[in-house]
Amino acid sequence: MATEAQSSFDILLAEDRVYPPPPGFAAQASVNDPQIYAEADKDFEGFWAKHAESLDWFQKWDTVLEWDVPWAKWFTGGKINASYNCLDRHLADKGTKQAIIWEGEFGEQKTYTYTELHAEVCKFANVLKGLGLQTGDRVAIYMGMVPELPIALLASARIGCPHSVVFGGFSPDSLSDRINDAEAKVLITQDGSFRRGSVVPLKQNADEAVKKTPSIEHVVVLRRAGDKAQIQMQEGRDLWWHDLMKDASPDCPAEQLDSEHMLYILYTSGTTGKPKGIVHTTAGYLLQTMLTTKWVFDLKDDDIYWCTADIGWVTGHSYIVYGPMANGATCLMYEGAPDYPDKDRFWDIVQRHKVTILYTAPTSIRTFMKWGTEYPERHDLSSLRVLGTVGEPINPEAWMWYNQYIGHGKSPIVDTWWQTETGAIMITPLPGITETIPGSATVPFPGISASIVDENGKDIEPGAAAGYLCLNRPWPSMFRTIFNDPDRYVQTYWSKFPGRYFTGDGAKQMNNGYYAIIGRVDDVLNVSGHRIGTWEVESALVDSGDVAEAAVVGTEDVITGQAIAAFVTLKTGIEGTEDERQKLKQHVAKKIGAIARPKQIIFTADLPKTRSAKIMRRLLRDVAAGRVLGDTTTLADPAVVNELKEQYEQMGAAE
Length: 655
Ligand code: PRX
Known about the structure:
The chain has about 650 residues and is of the alpha/beta class. About 30% of the residues lie in helices and about 20% in strands. The protein has 3 domains: about 5-80 and about 280-520, ANL, N-terminal domain (Rossmann fold, 3-Layer(aba) Sandwich); about 115-265, Rossmann fold, CATH 3.40.50.980; about 525-655, 2-Layer Sandwich (GMP Synthetase, Chain A, domain 3), CATH 3.30.300.30. It has an 8-stranded mixed beta sheet, sandwiched between helices. A 7-stranded mixed beta sheet has the order 5-4-17-16-18-19-20, sandwiched between helices. A 4-stranded antiparallel beta sheet has the order 21-22-24-25. The two termini are about 30 Å apart. The site of adenosine-5'-monophosphate-propyl ester has 22 residues, from helix 13, strand 20, strand 24 and strand 25. Adenosine-5'-monophosphate-propyl ester binds near residues 392, 393, 420 and 505.
């Protein structure tokens, strides 16, 4: 299987450094008996059911799992509420414990105890009810990293309204597409959020979006940027958060919902078509996020836990809100950029708040490496005891740096593999048990079964070859469907290898059985840990009006993991100038969001195609990577590739 990550993958496979849990760690870890794997494997339903007992149920389930491939229902007959499990049940013994420690970009601090958070959530749930929302109605949320964001999530969950959070970096078009697909009735946003000292105009973007969303009845606006944001409120439609909260009652009993009640929709990129609305339901999701948070991070009652993700992505949903709060953890939230006001902001936060668990992305670690060790060295990081990574393969070099300069060799690193679709961590070390190898996510979590198969769906033995990463049995936090598109759910994930879930990732099992993840093998890119479909970027390029045809591929990038390279055929009469290149980059950023901005645009008179007119992406990847060209015998016009390659070489690595 050829992929653009092959070279860094070869480095990983040659990795022979092994790190057992640091001295003393295993003895204090809440899970330290390797028997747990065999136990869970023997009866995975029994394993999950046992741990489901530690959630609070209004009514216990009748059946642990109903599995009619590929349709899963967990804990049917049970009645439960996610907001209740994250808040109410902690009030008696953890009411005065900090639930959220929030730090704004300018250094402001706000904290909420579990009692205070509960009151805010109840009030806002009553606000949502007051706007006419009923159980089952969808709520769209487009905010920055402020405490009101988890409050909005937990308030929606409390009254059984599935939330659809749209990352604040997305464009108005991306927002309106997602609102329309979910047919959300209410949009919650803020006047503006802060990033590197500048205002991100969320309300202005929301106004643009809402022009195209007939389902939206009200827009609730949180005041955060104040005078720094230029906004207008539309009478009748737009309402201030603080006005609505003024008289809201803090009494709002949590709805008793079915285990399978839809908790949220989160849109993610696929290979073709519009983004997919990944549907998660309540009980199973809550169970697996809770248990993985507890075991993977060895979470203890006095930990200060910081996941640096944005709640706009699944990592924030599962490991800032539901997983940690179901455990009654103290969660740190930071609003802004890691280099504001200086490049030591993260380490300054770790020191001041005595953060004990840090969960971040390989792309951030590589950025910190580039900035240099002087920044972490300015601070006392001795409070840290567990380090995590997620979102993309971590190269052994970055792993070693994280271990040495952040963990000082005493904090285990948990490299966690999972996806928006899986809802929770699936392949990961357990820090008190697993010997880690830099760059490997190691082994499936107890109760999870993975495999690597070849093109024909045949299992590949450890050490033999790379193949397709699959999951063999249902798991509680699995997504249940794609919103409004069950056929796509079946087609995309369950048809390639019948009976198994296909992850879209390539991987290889090392000789010892550990999983080494290569990355996506479909037309999905992973830029800084964010998924972007090649198709979305291609459509945005064509949408500019200047482009006849475009093909987008990923190239290796030392910081962002992958970067976007776009091969573009312009319409007759449009010239491939530097201005045109900038214009197209800008258009994509405006159309989708800055994360989708191509790093390179290569103009070409034609795109390499097979005789059946399929674009040969493999060749384009080779061209963009400057690699020796692969087999061109099936190419309709082989000259096209050579021309592309020449052009690319002339551009060098120019952006
Ligand atoms: O390719 C894998 C990569 O991220 C993809 C999932 O992206 P998303 O749904 O946006 O969720 C990201 C956060 C959970 C996967 O298909 N990925 C995620 N974690 C890892 C990873 N690749 C290698 N190692 C990881 N630890």
